[in-house]
Write a structure and sequence with these properties.
Layout lengths: L1 H7 L4 E2 H8 L3 H13 L3 E6 L9 E5 L5 E7 L3 E8 L4 E8 L6 H15 L7 E8 L3 E2 L4 E2 L13 H9 L3 E5 H15 L42 E7 L3 E7 L2 E3 L29 H10 L3 H19 L3 E5 L1 H5 L1 H15 L7 E4 L4 H10 L8
Parallel strand pairs: 4-7, 7-10, 11-14, 14-15
Antiparallel strand pairs: 1-3, 2-3, 4-5, 5-6, 8-9, 11-12, 12-13
Helix pairs in contact: 2-3, 4-5, 6-11, 7-8, 8-10
Amino acid sequence: MLDLLRGAGPAGLGRAELATRTGLTPQAVSKITARLGADGLIAEAGRAASTGGKPRTLLRLVPQARHAAGVHVDRDELRAVRVDLAGRVVGECRGPLDFGAGPEAVVEAVVRAVARVADPVGLPLLGVGVVAPGPLDHRAGTMGRVTGFPSWKGFPLRGVLQGRLGLPVLLDKDTNAGAAAAAGAWLRATWPDADADADGDAGLVADAGLGAGGAGGVPDAYGYAGGGPRTCVYLHVGTGLGAGLWLGGGVYRGARSAAGEFGHQVLLMDGPPCRCGARGCVEVLCLGAVARGDLPEAARILGEAAANLVALLDVDRVLLGGRVVEAAPDVFVAGVGAVLAARALDPARPVVALAGAGVAEGAAELALGPVFGRAE
């Protein structure tokens, strides 16, 4: 029910609509909405236009009622955000990080960052999403053999942070958070920005190319108000290269949390050695082009690898993010798009766009999942 109200935006929904869409009886909806209202999670949004009878009372989510935090632990930087229930960023901090300094140093940095973004008036956090380079075991909350950082293997990062923070902690790969951020960007497009312009106009998240919608849109079976993408891939180009997969309305992690190791598909047999031990991986080829300053070539290489993924999964959207992409967005969107167009077997090829939200936002989105009935 909260998920439906989130998707409806400030316009809200009536109790009868909630009953129809949830399959609950009107009496059950009345009891649940009364409890949610008493907890401050929902409020009245006005009345719908009369169709002859008594105007219906509309209900809306109260975004500021609860907050969650998201932390992106990168190889050389840490960024943390605090978001409200609509996924809007209301607090942020970032700073340098040495991932190679080891687990204990990184844990201290995460604890300090969460304290910095916490609500100064004491609104408690629902939980914290922490995302890091993979591989890792999402279910067990332990780190895997991160390429170049062997000391992290087997470290129980989720459990250690839960003990230090006293909050529920979700651990996932940075690329999975990128995919979740894309879904969150679509939903945030139904809500005015927290810092709307003085004239009252609210900004909308548009970069993600997620289609038309808006306030009052009805979430479809995949949770998108107004009908959004049912499948997409998020490609992250930063200190490494990976993918997050949004399939069937949720993040796809695979049986062993290992899905999305996109950067280590081999494009060039007997190519340059990659830090993973193989040769000719898309990561070493793409980041090598970035290091030479040849961004169009980096975009072309990324596009070739993306085309392989599109041919395999038949997705609706290819969304790009990470600091390398953010430094030259037009180059990467155009370069990847050109390769996909050239290799397309179907005229209805996927849209290529910027992700529209950062990885830390995606981490917070994952932490919000249980509130909205999404088991992460």
